[in-house]
Fold these 2 entries.
Entry 1:
Amino acid sequence: MRSSGGTISPLAMSAAHSALQSQPGVASGAIGDKGMPMTEGDEPVPQGIDRAQGSDRAQVKATARILTALSVFASEVEDLGVTELAQRLGMTKNMVYRALSTLADQGYVVRDATSQRYQLGYRVLELQNHNRPEPDLRALCAPFIQRLQEMTGETVSLIIRALDYAVMIDGIETRLPGTYRMVIGSIHPLHTPASGLVLLAMSSDDDIQSYIARNSPLQINGGQGTLPPKDLWKRIRETRERGHAQVIREDALPMLSLGFPIWASGNQLHGVIGSGGPLARFGPQLPAMLPHIAQLLEELNQRTRLYPADPQQWAIS
Amino acid sequence: MGDLVMAKPTGSTVNSSALYVFEVLRFVADMPEPLGVTEIGRRLSLPVSTVFRALTTLEDAGYIQRFQNAPRFEIGTMPYLLNRALLSRFALHGESRPVLYELAQTSEDTISLWMRLGWYGVRIGGAFGRRDTHHHARLGDVVLLHTHPAGRTMLTMLPDNEQSDYAQFVANHHADSAASLDNGWPHPGGGGEVRRERTEPDSVRSSSVAIRDQNGAVVGCLASDGAAGGDDPSLDQRLCQARDTLEALIAAAPERYRSPFAHIPADKIQLNLASISHAKR
């Protein structure tokens, strides 16, 4: 894991995009042996374009592009065309075409002769190790939590539902003053935090009714007050319309928190990624930031939709 | 684990530098335990600096990762996502789920749905039973048909000429597995019946039944693995009911439920099973 924290910069706003093109510090001067094509002369120079590929650094970049192009297939999408991939990746069509050629040569993608579009090849089945467990929700979300934290500068957390509670299971706490704490294992009734609202709003009306029935009166403010069910329904409608939850907590230091659904296959929920901070700091930058957050979470959701929600997780026993 | 074998670029558009990065990736995928850069370089007979650069590129893209923050590497999240993405192209991967969960819950066994991929079987669906504590069942497992109980069930249901084709394929491409094929495989009674096997030393009972398409061709297998002691006579019946449900789905929309690779001749599909042969059942 790389270090986290720090303030937001205009560049960080496009982190979703730039991370795709980020390059490691490249160790220079490595000369491959055994005929490894590590030198300039061995690189096949394509006709007319991108001759800068000769250096080691350019080769590493080209290789990173190939891996990035393959990663786009890690979703429920059936096939992809060159133009579509170029747009998604911010690469030229020629770069994409060459990346796909290498991937096709390896059998990781195959081109449909009729549609000219590319699909995953069965050789990706070889890239597994059966001594290593499958990645869980935390592993899927971790890189995105990190990017969201860099984007917002605020605390970001991962929340799942357990019975009638929202439980924090992972996250990164900001180093800025006056913020939400990120406490693994902390729980809240579903009707109070933004994360809980998402978990409720994305379930069926019947489920919400029975939640209200089980937990009435709906206590808020640490038991100092109650939330009328009609007010909860209003918040649920707003959350559904917006596609995410926004909650402002009026306090000595007013706080703004957001909750975004993390989707599983079959329109079920894995959980929620939340981010929050002081309203005065987080609020003003939010309008400009939301489209970028949405883009980042769409990328994550393409991955998490490949997995079913844990059928045990929501069981009320 | 052998030395690195360079794949030959087939055209000028193939990035030859990337080819050896993929070789490093496949090597990492095959390693039985996480290894450091020096050890990987030694086994591949490559300079550490070269391996380091390949590992860095792969790590940055999520294809490999450090094990417990140590300077030792293992396969990362991205290959598992690609694996899932591939499985999601089998319509039965998602749509068989309720059937498999139900069966796992009532039987307490681990249920697997296998589909044919050429002469291999690939586990495209599964549900863990409550009593399952020692299985290593993973989605995306690939086995040569005769090396696995569920695969053997599919194999025994194939017509004689296809069985000969299979034997030829194994001799040509998986010679090290050919000897076990010479011993023959158990033939069950009439078609569609549940086949049972017990494997030692872990004493697991594997019950499986072939799945056929609307033309009667064997396209997959439904398997239930559990403790050998806990034989439940009604299991066979439930297994067959679930099989019937899946076959009815397939018959109603054959195109939809066809394997996305069904159009490729079986002999053309060849996989390196170095890592995936860890799959026991």
Entry 2:
Amino acid sequence: MIALLIRDLRLAVRAGGGFGLGLAFFLIVVVLVPFGVGPESGLLSTIAPGILWLGALLACLLSLDRILALDWEDGSLDLLATAPVPMEAIVSIKALAHWITTGLPLVLVAPVLGLLLNLPGAGYGPLVLSLLIGTPALSVIGTFGAALTVGLKRGGLLLSLLVLPLYVPTLIFGAEMARRSIEGMDATPPLLMLAGITCGTIALLPFASAAVLRVNLR
Amino acid sequence: MELIVSGLSVARGGIAVLEGLSFSVSEGEALVLRGPNGSGKTTLLRTVAGLQPPLKGHIGLEHEAMAYAGHSDGIKSVLTVQENLQFWADVFETGCIVPALQAFDLTSLANRPAGGLSAGQKRRLGLARMVVSGRPVWVLDEPTVSLDAASVAMFAEAVRAHLAAGGLALLATHIDLGLSEAKMLDVTPFKAVPPEIDDFDGAFL
């Protein structure tokens, strides 16, 4: 299992692995938003948490079809399925590798990009915390979507359509948590909801992903 | 250890392709499957390897005993030959890859990125994975595709060594491997009868 994680991370950082793709997309979205909505700093601080969360979510979505499609194309997925590692572990490791290469860099770079959007000082901690808690759910849900569409050529559109509705709760509670802390309200309820969603998806979805993948490999 | 398959029916895309297939392979034996393209050899091998459930019948060994090699080798082109093989050695928890590299004459290529290998070299790397898997039953689907004569001999030698160590092999191939001791099985007589087309609508036309 560790071997699979190391291989996936190694593949991601080598040429063509798409490691910087999500990060660059996130950067572009956040840099372009002030040009689009105008330089008024009050407006920017109001929408900053939402834009940062939306950017992170879309950046995450961008790299989802790489999670399993590449392994399916070159036959590794068939071979992994016959290896002495349970399918549930394979999809969990794949989701973890996706989070480390996509979610974690987004979390780390978010405070820097918060500056560009004039994010109020009280918002930095809660924003990073909400992303840290929320992005694992994005990776796990995304792996489920990738498992559903693994046999399809150019399944990216279908994958996005399937996954986006499942991302909505995470987006709502994640952005809400950052917004509430900025406005000085109690941010605990959205934090708990966000953590609950992440824990629930991590606990349940690998089983669904593995079942779907077994059917798709037939 | 013996692989006993009895009354097996396999399906591809929901349609039965082979029916009532029974055979057995015991320790140190190889069974070569023959049959024209589209006769269901790949489907049979995938079923035996546990990638899809059989329609009917029974496969007498756990999937954990099988190592499967299909049409694609599962090679990552940005990793080196050694990294590719070491990954599978770690997954199968067998450790040492040196004998496998030697058996398929890959030692001199060990530090090359796998993307730069020729088709035949990639195939050899794919087959070296079988040695690394350390599993007793090799299930091989057309293993000699894109191999030259010398590499086919190398592969036959590896299969022979595997059989001598008490292993089993189940292969689908169109060419003569020079494995004179191997049993042959032609799957053509087991071809499933196509399902009768339901003429229910026809009565109303």
